[in-house]
Design brief:
single chain, about 170 residues, mainly alpha, three-stranded antiparallel β-sheet, 6 helices, about 5% strand, globular
């Protein structure tokens, strides 16, 4: 049986993200935060099933038989930030990705860096060149992990709120 979504959110997701935000330069905290936000999507899937709803239809996808992996694929089609986060989670879990046109290659694509003024994306990450985690995608673009997590979480929270899951 899956942990109820409200308990997962309060007992697992929030504390993990709080830990990461307290030390956004720590690789192990970043890996954990990515895994937990990715897992949040699976918990949304299960919560919708528990409420006797078709998770795919509820997110505007065609009805289909599938598991949370297929659900994540549908979510990834709807949000580019979540797509990248999903691929990072898979890369971290499997060490290296070879199939399905991922946006990243492997677990080493997440690195700690200190970017100077004007080097990072506008509004991304923390100000002042402090060490933070960045993910380099296959196109060579760097993404601030904290900003990516925030955007993916907002996307998933929108789904959970829309369906009164929390």
């Amino acid at each position: 049986m899956a942990k109820p979504l409200d308990k997962f959110y309060g007992e697992i997701l929030n504390p993990t993200l709080t830990d990461f935000k307290s030390e956004p330069e720590m690789l192990h905290r970043g890996f954990n935060a990515v895994a937990v936000v990715d897992s949040y999507s699976a918990h949304i899937f299960q919560e919708l099933l528990t409420k006797k709803k078709d998770p795919f239809v509820e997110i505007g996808a065609p009805p289909q038989r599938g598991d949370d992996s297929k659900f994540r694929n549908e979510l990834a089609k709807q949000d580019p930030n979540f797509r990248l986060l999903r691929d990072i989670a898979k890369a971290n879990k499997h060490a290296r990705l070879y199939q399905h046109s991922p946006k990243v290659n492997g677990s080493d694509d997440t690195q700690q860096k200190s970017l100077g003024w004007g080097e990072g994306g506008f509004g991304e990450g923390r100000y002042g060149g402090t060490p933070q985690l960045y993910v380099t995608d296959l196109d060579g673009k760097e993404h601030n992990l904290e900003s990516l997590l925030d955007a993916s979480l907002a996307f998933l929270n929108g789904i959970a709120t829309k369906h009164n899951l929390l």
